[in-house]
Design brief:
This protein has eight helices and four strands, in the order H-E-E-H-H-H-E-H-E-H-H-H. With about 230 residues, the protein is mainly alpha-helical. Helix 1 packs antiparallel against helix 4.
């Protein structure tokens, strides 16, 4: 009996030690990830500042104001923030985009269904500058400010719309445990809002397996894809 109790106690201590080591490791990971976000965010913003100013000038002169598009999004721990990007749509389309677009059915009580997809309103048209910005994802440059402020990360799940996140079930809510990113695992794997179920699966994989190595892989694959587009 004594040996059994001793063995159980030893097992409990080892389990507690393993959990403690895990929490220390994960907390260190998030600490250094945040530190890296600040450093890289500031460096990238400074390097891209001439391009940032050029795009502001181009939009203001060619399409007029506003230069930026603001949209409410959901971040870490279900906190909302106003996400900024360069305006890519005409002003009329921008108003249409801001209207409540989704009369969600009562059948969504168990979560957002996998078959759900966001379809672009046919009345929305992009500006000439907006098409160029969207093609090379340059409309996301202002999001570096969110990275520096701590509302976003360079790498993470895409920022969700509140009207969709409100219907998340417990499993889907896990994707909100980390900061949303400018790029992420779902994005590099080709899962977008046109395939919501697959996007959620990739995002949950990321939240459960996030690491320095995975972040580096996502970041460099995103940069590589951008350079390939620029070379086309």
């Amino acid at each position: 009996m004594y040996k059994v109790k001793k063995g159980m106690m030893k097992g409990m201590l080892e389990s507690a030690k393993t959990k403690t080591n895990y929490f220390i490791h994960i907390n260190l990971y998030f600490f250094f990830k945040r530190l890296l976000d600040i450093i890289l965010g500031v460096v990238l913003f400074i390097l891209l500042l001439p391009l940032f100013i050029f795009i502001c000038y181009k939009i203001a002169r060619k399409e007029g104001k506003p230069i930026f598009y603001r949209e409410l999004r959901v971040g870490k721990n279900n906190r909302t923030f106003m996400m900024w990007s360069f305006r890519t749509m005409t002003n009329g389309s921008r108003v249409i985009r801001q209207l409540p677009p989704y009369p969600f059915p009562s059948s969504w009580g168990k979560g957002v269904p996998d078959y759900f997809k966001i379809t672009r309103d046919q009345n929305i048209t992009f500006t000439e500058t907006g098409l160029w910005l969207s093609k090379y994802h340059l409309d996301k440059i202002p999001q570096l400010i969110h990275v520096i402020r701590g509302e976003m990360s360079l790498v993470g799940p895409s920022p969700e719309r509140p009207e969709i996140a409100d219907y998340y079930n417990r499993q889907q809510m896990k994707r909100l445990k980390v900061r949303p990113g400018i790029t992420g695992f779902a994005q590099i794997e080709g899962a977008t809002n046109k395939n919501h179920g697959q996007k959620i699966k990739y995002d949950l994989y990321y939240t459960e397996n996030c690491s320095y190595k995975l972040d580096a892989k996502i970041f460099f694959r995103s940069v590589r894809r951008l350079f390939i587009k620029l070379a086309e």
